[in-house]
Design brief:
Chain lengths: ~675, ~325
């Protein structure tokens, strides 16, 4: 909403500078975003919050200024007398509007009583269409409205002045002498003043004549009944339309106007007739013609804000600071309310039809606070009370800790979009299964079910920028089968180590090492490791890396976070006293079929003796002197006895048992 | 005499500091403690000292000698601990231990912010990103078909659920399960179908705080946020509270931070929890009051680190990430 200071001054004296006024308004809730200078005129650009439609007019803002500065509002509007008295009030059952000494008969018919509880029509005859006075045109330009002609400008002027949208129809183009407020019929066509022809349906509330739609109620009038240079007679509409219906119609038609903007937020029904009268006066002054009076039809119930009670004690309790009752009363009066002090701690505030946002005591407390100024409240620090229950979320803490740990291990955290473009949805790539109903663009079509697409995109993005080594991780939520879960992903690409001493390409085993490292860090019982790693650790298929233009292998691990935080897999911490007697280490090397895994070999070796404390792979060798399909493996075995040291003979016997077992089960060949 | 001794002590200590090899050390030792060294020449002047001052001068002579001898001994030992091999190493060659990675700047800011609130007694909690219409709107007093929903445009899934458009949903989830006193801080992702540009993103992060208790006041909200701002942005940070409108709080405020170069910058939304919200989760608004506040993590991070384009946070350019 634009507020030209010069226009404002027509209704209230303003002694402060535009900058100071802007500050006052901002600090009381009508935020001034900037002060524009238009041809030497200061215009405040105000962000009016959706709860304050009363501030969408110059007079409404004048009331705010009055409450802030104590200046009185000048009686400009209400002193205007209508040209003719408004005695023509048709009976509500057959509201036929027959202005005296005319041939016109208009029936106002309201079919949708909820959508249009109040409708008024006024006939003004023999106008002369021409430009509005230049001062008026100037004012309209300052608030961002294009001057059109004296009649349309009068309706727009009143819209900005009082906040009540009006519409002027060419009375001679309304067919059949009826004005109907009804739902559009399915498929009904309508050509608005601006824009292409629309096809409506019953969701849209319209104004129609006997034949066709002449306006989308509260949004825009139609081309057919538009006021043109040749218009002589005018039917002036002023009404109250249901905010939700106007909003719906505006969204469906994709037309937003100054009118719909105000109806959506709720206009003041008590101003409907007054605005019509005001516009008639202005049209009389600017375009001549004779006002034949107004017909009013009340069909449905109008919003009536309730009476609210305010307890000064409650205000103090909520704000932490008291405001004297006298001051409360004065502030409310300045805001246009009529508060009554019922008792020492009870102020009755009757509802005001222009302020439908005031429904609860809390709303009044805010009114007092915003006029007093938020800065008047002295800050305090509350006492913390805790329940017995621990509310803290362990998962968040664990994730925070793990992020720091992974960073220390050399990985960088990334955060990628949870929404994926359709082009990343591929059969060979987990990612998007849940499509959004209303994606805003093709880039945000699917809710991710895996962190992999985002990870590969990030790797490709960095390769394009010459990165040759990437160690990345992400912890984020994914959505699959109607279930949301937090997942952890890690990826390695390019060098694992690259310095003047050592160079190595990242491998499957480097990533496995990272995974084992964090499993250890998370104190997960090693017996659970294989199930947590197998199948979740992978080299990404070359077809997939190629799709992302990633030239080399990507090693990737992804797991559902809940699997890692399950308490049942956590190591029970019970300390064992380190062995008193020294352990004995023996190495063993053999050639075995490639198909035999180190895992199964280790289990077999370990099963040969209760004294085997540790079985560790030392080396793998494939190549020269090793038959194809086989490999040489070397293990280090550590023996430990609780009751004493081993003799050589004992150790040899134990080693032989290992050898026998390996030979028997796997046909190994010792070196 | 005493002054000269003190001077010699200080100068010798300074010289010792800068010695890096054994040879120089040897030469320095001869210069100071040698038979014809500086110390010996000072000791030779003992005779010139008047009789009454002699005991004091003698004491000082002994003290300085002891200290200098100890200092040389220590320095010599420090050299002999370094093996001859070390001395032949080029210590300027880079170390070979892998450099650390890093946590994302948005995580960093989130941690910094939540840590401050934790110290003020708030517990960190979270909630799902896929939410119901009820939790995201109705429970927060945002009516259907009302313009106040415009600022909360929302992504919907085919199953009728939606991607939460604000972390205030966590308030509802916590209050539905637990009774006051409550002090929580809830960081997380939120989604709004905004066109993406330098300052808008369809996905961003928020941190939401809530306190509900008997006697929680607006002045407490001010105090808590002021304490936070002073710790996070630095002591003496100036905040400005402005009335605003949020459907889920009443009174509502927007909070601006003063920047000497850019003026008032909006950083927080806050307010007293709306009685309808409390009633909706079966907390008696007559007995309990509460306040809530929320901030955009990207916005705070951009302000704090001088990042100019919000998209940089989600591109994950490693050259960008490495700076944090």
């Amino acid at each position: 909403m634009k507020l030209p200071i010069s226009w404002l001054k027509e209704y209230i004296d303003v002694s402060v500078s535009p900058e100071r006024l802007a500050e006052l308004l901002t600090l009381s809730g009508t935020a001034v975003e900037r002060i524009e200078k238009k041809g030497g005129e200061a215009v405040l650009d105000i962000e009016v919050t959706t709860n304050r439609p009363d501030c969408l007019s110059i007079l409404g803002l004048a009331r705010e200024v009055s409450a802030l500065t104590g200046e009185r509002i000048k009686k400009v509007v209400s002193s205007q007398k209508s040209v003719v008295s408004e005695k023509i009030k048709p009976k509500s059952l057959s509201p036929v509007y027959c202005p005296p000494s005319t041939d016109y008969r208009f029936t106002i018919r309201i079919e949708d009583k909820k959508g249009c509880p109040l409708y008024t029509a006024r006939l003004i005859q023999n106008v002369t269409i021409g430009p509005a006075p230049s001062t008026v045109q100037r004012n309209l330009e300052l608030v961002g409205s294009r001057p059109i002609n004296n009649v349309v400008d009068a309706t727009n002027f009143v819209l900005f002045e009082m906040g009540q949208p009006l519409h002027a129809f060419d009375a001679d183009k309304i067919e059949g002498g009826v004005v109907v407020a009804r739902s559009a019929r399915k498929g009904e066509k309508f050509l608005p003043i601006d824009g292409p022809e629309l096809t409506l349906d019953e969701k849209t509330l319209v104004i129609a004549d006997a034949q066709k739609v002449i306006a989308i109620a509260g949004v825009m009038g139609g081309k057919r009944t538009e006021v043109t240079a040749s218009t002589k007679n005018i039917l002036l509409e002023s009404a109250y339309f249901d905010p939700a219906r106007v909003r719906q119609a505006s969204r469906l038609a994709k037309i937003s106007t100054e009118s719909s903007y105000r109806f959506e937020r709720g206009v003041d029904p008590s101003q409907v007739a007054a605005a019509s009268r005001r516009a008639a006066t202005l049209i009389g002054q600017w375009a001549g013609g004779s006002d034949q009076g107004m017909a009013e039809k009340i069909a449905g119930s109008l919003p009536k804000p309730p009476r609210v009670f305010l307890r000064p004690s409650r205000l103090e309790k909520v704000l932490g600071q008291a405001v004297p009752a006298g001051k409360i009363l004065k502030t409310l009066q300045n805001l246009g309310f009529s508060p009554v002090k019922k008792s020492a701690d009870r102020i009755a505030v009757p509802g005001r039809s222009g302020r439908r946002d005031i429904r609860l005591e809390a709303d009044l407390i805010e009114e007092i606070l915003r006029i007093e100024g938020f800065d008047t409240i002295q800050p305090t620090i509350p006492v913390t009370k805790h329940g017995l229950e621990n509310i803290e979320n362990k998962k968040i803490k664990q994730i925070q800790e793990l992020k720091k740990y992974l960073a220390a291990l050399g990985l960088h955290e990334i955060i990628t979009y949870s929404l994926l473009p359709g082009r990343l949805i591929r059969a060979d790539l987990p990612g998007g299964v849940s499509r959004l109903r209303n994606p805003a663009s093709a880039e945000q079509e699917y809710l991710r079910s895996s962190l992999l697409p985002g990870m590969l995109q990030t790797i490709a993005f960095n390769i394009n920028r010459k990165a040759d080594a990437l160690k990345l991780f992400e912890i984020g939520n994914c959505y699959k089968a109607e279930k949301e879960s937090t997942r952890l992903a890690m990826a390695l690409y390019g060098h694992w180590e690259k310095n003047w001493k050592r160079k190595s390409e990242a491998s499957f085993y480097d990533l496995k090492g990272v995974v084992e490292n964090i499993l250890g860090h998370l104190k997960i019982d090693p017996t659970h490791w294989p199930s947590l790693i197998d199948g979740k650790l992978m080299r990404i298929e070359p077809t997939v890396t190629k799709f992302f233009d990633i030239p080399n292998d990507v090693y990737y691990f992804e797991i559902n976070w809940d699997e890692l935080t399950n308490d049942s897999i956590r190591k029970k911490l019970s300390v064992e006293t380190p062995h008193r007697f020294p352990s004995v280490r023996r190495d063993i090397a053999f050639i075995v079929d490639k198909g035999k895994s180190v895992g199964e070999l280790s289990i077999l070796i370990k099963s040969t003796s209760p004294y085997l404390e540790e079985v560790l792979l030392l080396d793998e060798y494939v190549g020269k002197n090793i038959p194809a399909g086989r490999r040489s493996l070397a293990f280090s075995l550590v023996y430990q006895k609780e009751t004493g040291t081993f003799t050589d003979a004992e150790i040899t016997a134990l080693q032989n048992k290992v050898g026998d077992a390996l030979r028997a089960s796997y046909k190994v060949e010792f070196r | 005499m005493i002054e000269d001794l003190k001077k010699l002590e200080v100068e010798t200590q300074n010289d010792l500091e800068s010695v890096t090899d054994k040879k120089t050390l040897e030469a320095l030792k001869i210069k100071i403690l040698g038979r014809k060294g500086l110390f010996a020449s000072l000791a030779g002047r003992m005779g010139e000292v008047p009789a009454p001052d002699k005991p004091a001068a003698g004491q000082e002579l002994n003290r300085v000698k002891r200290i200098l001898e100890e200092s040389f001994k220590e320095k010599e030992a420090s050299f002999s601990a370094v093996s001859p091999e070390t001395k032949s190493l080029d210590a300027t060659m880079p170390g070979t231990f892998a450099l650390p990675g890093g946590i994302h700047p948005l995580t960093q800011v989130t941690l910094d912010v939540t840590r401050i609130f934790e110290r003020l007694g708030f517990a960190v909690v979270d909630g799902p990103e896929v939410e119901t219409e009820y939790t995201n709107f109705e429970a927060l007093n945002i009516p259907l078909d009302h313009p106040s929903r415009d600022s909360f445009d929302t992504f919907y899934l085919d199953n009728g659920k939606l991607l939460r458009s604000q972390t205030s949903t966590v308030q509802i989830r916590v209050m539905e399960k637990r009774k006051p006193p409550l002090k929580i801080i809830a960081p997380g992702k939120v989604y709004r179908p905004d066109a993406t540009d330098a300052t808008h993103s369809f996905m961003f992060h928020q941190i939401e705080g809530l306190m509900v208790d008997e006697g929680a006041r607006f002045s407490d909200l001010k105090g808590i946020l002021l304490a936070f701002a002073n710790e996070f942005f630095g002591a003496g940070t100036k905040l400005r509270f402005r009335p605003h409108f949020f459907p889920f709080t009443e009174p509502s405020a927007e909070i601006d931070l003063w920047s000497p170069t850019r003026g008032w910058l909006e950083i927080l939304g806050a307010g007293m929890v709306h009685p309808n919200v409390l009633r909706g989760v079966k907390i008696d608004p007559e007995k309990f009051t509460g306040f809530a506040f929320g901030m955009g993590v990207e916005r705070v991070a951009m302000l704090k680190y001088g990042v100019e384009d919000i998209r940089m946070f989600f591109e994950n350019d490693i050259r960008f990430l490495k700076q944090f």
